[in-house]
């Protein structure tokens, strides 16, 4: 994936009609509301009953021709992550969700994980609240079996394997795309369950356009952010900074409050020349401190890069990207001082050939991981060389997407991954899709070399996934359903004090249902998810995964006011591989209100866990619960677009 992946609509020429038979791409001012869902017969019936009034109104009150394109763009947003190229949600032939700028503004979450929790196919666990260690599971796969991108640059810990979601400030991002299903043939290692891409704020026309926010609330929490963006003479720029601090809450019963602070800075610039060539740079750095049970840590999360894009011919565009991602952690606890620094540098060359209704993408990638710190790793660096190709073919009403990638890694050898997706337009509103894809997860440095439990003989995980889905796309609402099965060989697993091993076979089956609507002044979304992640050797559910979740979002505009809320429900999970430590399910209600009290000025109130539920998602090794925060209220004032 090219770094600094543009949001659709970055360039004027990317804005075209919404009808897929008239054009391949669509512009985005989008309010993507894609959500998916689980199923007992009772849950499915409730979902159908909830969606029925939307269907009746959509059919009985068709949009006028003038209104329909705008509504279609809001509910059928353009996605760039699923296929390395702009495609509307139904054209991606994938299960996708888009959380757009309006959604982020309305919900104004204190963490990225709060935004992702309960989205279609997404499960989240946290070791407490406010900056505490968090894991994001896509379709029952682990935190280290998914890929996180920030403007096209991958961010993860090369030692732990997964991303540190809890250190990212959601106010620094304008949009999120969630792609579920294997993407190994496009992104290489670890894209087993899917890919999440976060987009920073894009430059606006003219300017500079400033934006400022300030607020605070429960637990002595303070939040500030400021930025400006604009464009002039082919140059586009966006600069921003934010600060978050809180006294926090206890993570163990009877414990003290555990604080957290985070300061983030962003700089992004690009220039387009008269011949259509373009150069750009990006840098995002988050730095702060975090208290946990038994100690505290200082952290750095950073992505940076530079790219150049050249139009070789009218049909051929070549893009070269050099990027670096850093994950640094300095912890002091009862066992002493621990320093872990990981750095990944990547050079990627991607070529796009536009053949009218068809598109070919091919390229090569070289990356190097380096680790350093207080741990004595037997190996502290490794490199990876890859080549990849993809064809996006449109034979309306049929569509074909085929991709293939070859990776050669210094540590674990060669891997070949591929994907094939077929789509068929049943009519102008309904698209049927079927896909098959393979992926692999690379053993992390901790898996292979960490003193005490690293195992240098580990095999890379490999997976196969089949999926069948259908999407209904209308002027003012949509629905989407998907049925899938993922089979994983050599799942990497470890228990405290034991050598990390491979589990021979794991199977994950699941169903996702989602719907969204823009009706008069209402914005509605629903997601229902069922998954069955099973260790085939024992017949037990994989630890810390819920199998059922439901999320409902409803917001209404009332002139200068807006009111809304979210209801998130998940069933029980198990904290251990033997399924003996059961953690109960929970239901959360989050409320929000907004007031536009002057041009460009607004105030917002959010109340998280409004019913003050006592809930947990993980436990300490000694059996105590990691506590989540109770009711929390936050107020903020905002200026700008």
From TrEMBL:
Annotated compartments: Cell outer membrane
Keywords (A to Z) from UniProt: Cell outer membrane, Ion transport, Membrane, Signal, TonB box, Transmembrane, Transmembrane beta strand, Transport
Domain TonB-dependent receptor plug: 90-195
Bilayer topology term: Multi-pass membrane protein
Main location: membrane
Pfam family, one: TonB_dep_Rec_b-barrel
InterPro entries: Beta-barrel_TonB, Beta-barrel_TonB_sf, Plug_dom, Plug_dom_sf, TonB-dep_rcpt-like
PROSITE patterns: TONB_DEPENDENT_REC_3
Biological processes annotated in GO: cobalamin transport; monoatomic ion transport
Domain annotation TonB-dependent receptor-like beta-barrel: ranges: 217-609
SUPFAM superfamilies: Porins
Basic and acidic residues compositional bias, start-end: 8-23
Region (Disordered): 1-23
UniProt GO cellular component terms: cell outer membrane
Record family assignment: Belongs to the TonB-dependent receptor family.
Name this polypeptide is given: Vitamin B12 transporter
Source species of the chain: Franzmannia pantelleriensis
UniProt lineage: Bacteria, Pseudomonadati, Pseudomonadota, Gammaproteobacteria, Oceanospirillales
């Amino acid at each position: 994936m090219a770094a600094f992946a543009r949001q659709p609509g970055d360039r004027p020429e990317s804005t075209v009609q919404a009808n897929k038979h008239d054009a391949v791409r669509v512009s985005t001012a989008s309010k993507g509301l894609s959500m998916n869902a689980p199923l007992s017969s009772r849950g499915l019936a409730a979902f159908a009953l909830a969606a029925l009034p939307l269907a009746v109104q959509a059919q009985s009150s068709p949009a006028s021709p003038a209104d329909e394109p705008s509504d279609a763009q809001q509910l059928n947003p353009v996605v760039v992550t699923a296929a390395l190229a702009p495609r509307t949600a139904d054209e991606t032939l994938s299960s996708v969700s888009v959380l757009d700028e309006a959604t982020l503004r309305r919900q104004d979450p204190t963490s990225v994980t709060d935004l992702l929790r309960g989205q279609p196919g997404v499960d989240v666990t946290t070791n407490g609240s406010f900056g505490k260690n968090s894991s994001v599971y896509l379709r029952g796969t682990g935190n280290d079996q998914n890929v996180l991108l920030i403007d096209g640059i991958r961010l993860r810990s090369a030692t732990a394997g997964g991303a540190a979601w809890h250190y990212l400030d959601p106010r620094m991002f304008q949009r999120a795309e969630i792609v579920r299903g294997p993407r190994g043939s496009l992104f290489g290692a670890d894209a087993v369950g899917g890919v999440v891409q976060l987009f920073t704020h894009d430059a606006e026309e003219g300017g500079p356009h400033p934006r400022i926010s300030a607020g605070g609330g429960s637990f002595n929490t303070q939040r500030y952010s400021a930025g400006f963006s604009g464009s002039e003479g082919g140059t586009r720029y966006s600069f921003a900074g934010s600060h978050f601090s809180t006294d926090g809450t206890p993570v163990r019963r009877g414990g003290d409050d555990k604080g957290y602070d985070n300061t983030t800075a962003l700089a992004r610039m690009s220039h387009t020349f008269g011949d259509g060539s373009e150069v750009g740079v990006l840098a995002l750095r988050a730095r702060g401190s975090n208290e946990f049970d038994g100690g505290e840590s200082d952290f750095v999360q950073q992505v940076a890069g530079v790219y150049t894009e050249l139009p070789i011919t009218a049909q051929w565009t070549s893009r070269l990207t050099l990027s670096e991602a850093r994950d640094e952690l300095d912890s002091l606890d009862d066992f002493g001082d621990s320093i872990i620094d990981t750095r990944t540098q990547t050079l990627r060359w991607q070529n796009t050939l536009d053949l009218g209704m068809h598109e070919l993408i091919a390229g090569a990638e070289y990356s190097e991981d380096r680790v350093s710190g207080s741990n004595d790793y037997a190996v502290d660096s490794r490199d990876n060389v890859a080549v990849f190709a993809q064809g996006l073919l449109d034979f309306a009403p049929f569509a074909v997407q085929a991709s293939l990638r070859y990776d050669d890694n210094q540590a674990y050898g060669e891997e070949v991954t591929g994907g094939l997706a077929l789509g068929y337009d049943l009519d102008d509103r309904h698209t049927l899709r079927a896909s098959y894809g393979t992926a692999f997860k690379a053993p992390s440095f901790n898996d292979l070399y960490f003193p005490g439990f690293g195992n240098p003989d580990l095999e890379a995980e490999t997976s196969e996934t089949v999926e069948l889905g259908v999407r209904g796309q209308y002027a003012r609402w949509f629905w989407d359903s998907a049925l899938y099965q993922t089979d994983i060989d050599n799942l990497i697993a470890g228990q405290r004090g034991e050598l990390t091993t491979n589990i021979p076979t794991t199977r994950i089956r699941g169903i996702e249902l989602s719907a969204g609507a823009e009706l008069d002044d209402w914005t509605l979304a629903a997601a229902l998810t069922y998954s069955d992640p099973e260790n085939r050797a024992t017949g037990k559910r994989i630890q810390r995964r819920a199998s059922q979740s439901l999320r409902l979002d409803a917001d209404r505009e009332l002139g200068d006011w807006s009111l809304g809320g979210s209801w998130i429900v998940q069933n029980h999970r198990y904290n251990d591989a033997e399924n003996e430590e059961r953690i109960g399910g929970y239901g959360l209600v989050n409320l929000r209100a907004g007031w536009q009290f002057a041009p460009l000025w607004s105030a917002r109130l959010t109340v998280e866990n409004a019913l003050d539920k006592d809930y947990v998602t993980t436990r300490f090794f000694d059996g105590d619960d990691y506590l989540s925060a109770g009711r929390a209220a936050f107020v903020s004032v905002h200026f700008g677009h």
